[in-house]
Amino acid sequence: MTPALLDSPRLSITEAARRLGVHPSSLWRWILTGARGRKLPTILVGARRYVLVADLEAFLAAGRTSAPPAATQPRAAEARASAAADELERRGL
């Protein structure tokens, strides 16, 4: 690990979660599986994992600029509701 990296402002997972107003498990999910196709990078110092402030800001900025994932669930629910309404109308109810 380079000295410049150690001097960079960093936050623990808990501190980063508090700063963002989310649960620490949300940050762990972003670290392990990612969000919108991008994982949150971390560094390991000793036995503790940290998020560099610059990496956190870049991760959040990338999330704001990328398109939201396709919402297939609401469309499927709308299709079922429409089919149910058509069926009720067909039966005269």
Account of the 3D structure:
- There is one protein chain.
- This protein has 93 residues and is mainly alpha-helical.
- The chain has one domain: Arc Repressor Mutant, subunit A (Orthogonal Bundle), CATH 1.10.10.
- It has 5 helices and 3 strands; from the N terminus they run H-E-H-H-E-E-H-H.
- The protein has helices at residues 3-7, 13-20, 24-32, 53-65, 72-90, and strands at residues 10-12, 43-45, 48-52.
- A 3-stranded antiparallel sheet has the order 1-3-2.
- Helix 2 (13-20) packs across helix 3.
- The longest helix is centred in the last third of the chain and has 19 residues, at 72-90.
- It is rod-shaped.
- The protein starts with a helix and ends with a helix.
- The model has no long low-confidence stretch (mean pLDDT 83).
Instruction: Name the overall outline.
Output: rod-shaped
- Order the strands across the largest sheet as they lie in space: 1-3-2
Structural class: mainly alpha
User: In CATH's first tier, which class applies?
Assistant: Mainly Alpha
Give start-end ranges of low-pLDDT stretches. none
Specify the CATH architecture. Answer: Orthogonal Bundle
Please estimate the helix content.
55-70%
Order of helices and strands: HEHHEEHH
The third-level CATH topology is Arc Repressor Mutant, subunit A
Between the first and last Cα atoms, what is the distance in angstroms? 71 Å
Number of β-strand runs? 3
* Mean pLDDT metric: 83
User: Beta-strand level of the residues, as a percent range?
Assistant: 5-15%
